[in-house]
Amino acid sequence: MMEEREEISWQEGAQAETAASLEASPAIEFPNTFSNKKKDAELHSRETIETQKTHKRYFYLFFKRVFDFISSLCVLIVLFLPLLAISLVVRLTSKGPVFYWDNRVGLNGKDIRVLKYRTMYEDAEEHVRDYLTDEQYQIWLVERKVEDDPRITPIGRFLRRTSIDELPQLVNILKGDISVVGPRPLTRSEIETNFTPEEQEMLLSCKPGLTGNWGVCGRSDVTFESGERQRLELEYVEKCGVLTDLKLIFATVGVVVKGKGAQ
Q1: Which residues make Cβ contacts (< 8 Å) with residue 240, sequence separation at least 6?
Q2: Comparing C-alpha atoms, which of 147, 150, 231, 139 is closest to residue 184?
């Protein structure tokens, strides 16, 4: 009897020690293989999507630059004689140079000089206050444009109404300063005054263009003061692509023919 009791007591002690040992030991965690595989698959999927977006953007930028170069070169060759004739008319109808270099901001904040036919009198920039009324001057400070601007020459009004004054920018497109389609080339003052720092960064991530959303949606009728111009410029940056650019090019033709919003 004593032996049986000792054996039972020994077994109980052994079981207690084993239980205590198990409680003291750290819990063993087995990896959730299914969960890890799911996370890896999601990560791989996101990486694949980002890679596809990057490749798509590279293709778009490559196509855009090729199109810009070929189209601007061809148009300059075809229009060489008409452009030469317009240059002679500008030179003979008012004092001053034929062309006007306008300081603007390009891709990534780079300073660029945009080429245009001179449409104003020679001293228009130096004596703005002498030409404009107080009301016109206040509008000019914000929009850089005013209705019935007295600084514009008679031939200049025709060139602006038909957008012919901007044809020399084909040289800028050929050089790669601007594209055929993009946000309007703006001055540094216009950008800093009318866009938030985040919007500025977004706007300058895209190369400016000869035409774009602003060019086909009213031009001078769409202002910074209303906020509509900022919206249009940033909308293009968000949605730019081959199809978007082609649509804007075709839309520009109709706008130029109608002379909508031109000043």
Answers
A1: 60, 181, 182, 206
A2: 231
What residue spans of 79-132 are helical by DSSP H? 80-93, 128-131
Q: Give the separation between CA 209 and CA 176, rounded to whole angstroms.
A: 10
Sign of the Cα pseudo-torsion (123, 127, 130, 133, in order): positive
**Average pLDDT of the residues of the chain:** 84
Mean pLDDT across 148-159: 92
- What tokens appear for 260 in the block? 């909508």
pLDDT of residue 256: 81
d(CA 124, CA 135): 17
Beta-carbon contacts of residue 260 (< 8 Å; ≥ 6 apart):
218, 219, 221
Determine contact, residues 64/74, Cβ cutoff 8 Å. Answer: no
Spatial neighbors of 72 by CB under 8 A, at least 6 apart, are 170, 171, 173, 174, 180
pLDDT of residue 95: 92
Q: What is the pLDDT of residues 11-40, one digit of tens each?
A: 555 555 555 554 555 555 555 666 666 666
Rounded Cα gap, residues 39 and 35, in angstroms: 6
